[in-house]
Every structure is written in C-alpha cells, then in structure tokens.
Amino acid sequence: MSRCFALHGIKGGACHNIQHDFFLNVTPCCIVYLCGMQIIPLSEGSFTIDGSKKFIPFNIDADNLQERATGSLLVEVQPFAVKTSKDIIVLDTGLGFLNDDGKMQLLANLESEGIMPGDVTKVLMSHLHKDHASGVTLVNDRDQITFPNATYYVQEREMEYALENDGKSYIAEDFKLLTNIKNIVWLKFDSGTIDDYIRYEITGAHSPFHQVFWITENNETIFFGADDAPQLHQLKHKFVAKYDYDGRKAMELRKIWKEKGEAEGWNFLFYHDVKYPTVVLRTS
Ligand SMILES: [Zn+2]
Fold first, then answer.
1. Rounded to whole angstroms, how far apart are CA atoms 26 and 9?
2. Which of 191-223 are b and which e, b meaning 16 or more Cβ less than 10 Å from the residue's Cβ?
C-alpha cells in the first residue's frame, strides 16, 4: 500500500473517504497519513466545563447536556502526536486524565500506536492552561517529566504569566518542573522557527501569550491553533468567545487562517472538537 494517502471517517464509524460540501474530515478512529507525516489524535475523552473551570467527563451516548450546569460547554480534550521524518512530536499534553486502569490516558493512547514515552522527541506547548499542561509531568509523580527524552518548547512569557496566575486555569504544580529540566527551549520571541520546519507565532488571543504552530514537511502543512481555533464550527461561523483573553482578535485570526488554510490545504488540528479532530478545508 502506498504511504501517500489519507484516511477520513466519522468518529465511531468506519474509516473511509467522506467528502462534505465544505470540508474533508478525519477522526480519532484513524491515524491520518499524509505523504510524509502522520497525525495521531490522542483524545482523553469528552468533558463539560462550566464557570467553575472543572472538567467533568461526559459520555456522549449516555449523558444529557441539559443536566449539566447552565452554560456548560461540551468539549473534547485532545492532544496530538505528529510523526515527521525527524521527530515524534506531541502537541499539548492534556488534562492528565486517568483511565480505568489508573494509567494516564495520553500515554495509553500513544502506547496503543506503539509509541513509548521515551520515543517522543519534541513537545510543543501552545499555552499552560490545565487542560493543555497537566500531562507535562506524571499525574502520580509531579517530579517526573512525562516524556523524558523530549525537548519541551514553551513560551517564556506564558510561563511567567502562568506562575503569577496559579489557581483556577493554571495549576503550577503540574508544569513548574519545566523551569528545572535540561531539555527545555524557552521561546522568547513573538514568532520564530524550530529546526527549520516548525513555525510558531504568539497570538495573544485565548491567553495573553498563547502561541500557535505550523509544521511543514514535503509541501504539507499541519496547523495547530489550539484554543485560538479549538473547534471546526468556530472557523465556519464568526464567534467572539467570552472565555478568551481577546475574543475579537481570536475571531479575526480564525478568518485569516481559514482563508490561508483553505488556499494552501492545511491540516487543521482541533483540540476541543468532539467530532472533528483534523480537517482539511476545501476551497469550493
Ligand atoms: Zn483548552
């Protein structure tokens, strides 16, 4: 079988090509095989979140959203692994959710694809909110980094801000080990490149120093907008989110990314989309 193909499907359904008017979609049931890179969604599951900022597991087949607190949002929590010719990259590290065996769901997901923690070579962090950074260290031992051989790429100003704002959204205990490890690259600028094929840019939209990433290899681009572009519908519909630091800026950036991504065939990764982890927008 040729390596150069993409599998597309609907969550819970068979993996096969499905084409909608607006987009092609791909799901957690499938690894997405690009010509060179692979995208592996690492969902920890679906959750509701309300004003208390607590993430409560939600079973889409059995639970009723109306029974959750008024204003609850339904979100997936979904880090990603990307295999390139040079690296195994993890994009954000999730909530640190433990599965029924008491194992970190993130690690169980990776292992089921044959990836051990020591195999990961880079961890790219969009920001340090608890649903993205609680898997930086082991849930049962916060003195151990989760991916011991990886280089962690973290925005320096985000770390400073997170430590100053420890509490509801940031849980410093989960990630402060980063200030004390050798394998850390502090990103200090508003934009830059990593190893000539990964680009980052601070947006200051969802949080003051939130950053987004593009990974480009063999003329293919994967775009990780994290919480500036967390769900497909926010790309399709204009939307100012109350939970963003600068919701208008996030909305304007999504418009730019949608147009550029459509024209250039980006693979969008959606961290909080319960249905569509990765999407390629169509130009028609
Ligand atoms: Zn988030």
1. 5
2. eeebeeebbbebbbbbbbbbbbbbbbbeebbbb
Q: What digits encode the pLDDT tens for the residues 87-116?
A: 999 999 999 999 999 999 999 999 999 999
Q: Is 62 exposed, middle or buried (0-12, 13-18, 19+ CB in 10 A)?
A: exposed
* Dist. CA 83 → ligand 1 center (Å): 23
All residues at 6 or more sequence positions from 87 whose CB lies less than 8 Å from its CB, including other chains: 121, 122, 195
DSSP 174-209: HHGGGGG-SSEEEE-SSEEEETTTEEEEE--SSSTT
Distance 145 CA to ligand 1 centre (A): 21
Per-residue pLDDT tens digits for 1-43 = 333 344 444 444 433 333 333 444 444 456 788 878 999 999 9
Whole-prediction pTM value? 0.90
Q: Please, what are the domains in the chain?
A: 23-281 (3.60.15.10)
CA 142/CA 137 separation, integer angstroms: 5
Residue 42: which of 126, 135, 129 has the closest Cα? 135
**Separation of 78 CA from ligand 1 center, angstroms?**
9
Distance 269 CA to ligand 1 centre (A): 13
Asked if residue 32 lies in contact with residue 4, where contact means CB atoms within 8 angstroms, the answer is no
Distance of CA 15 to the CA centre of its chain: 22
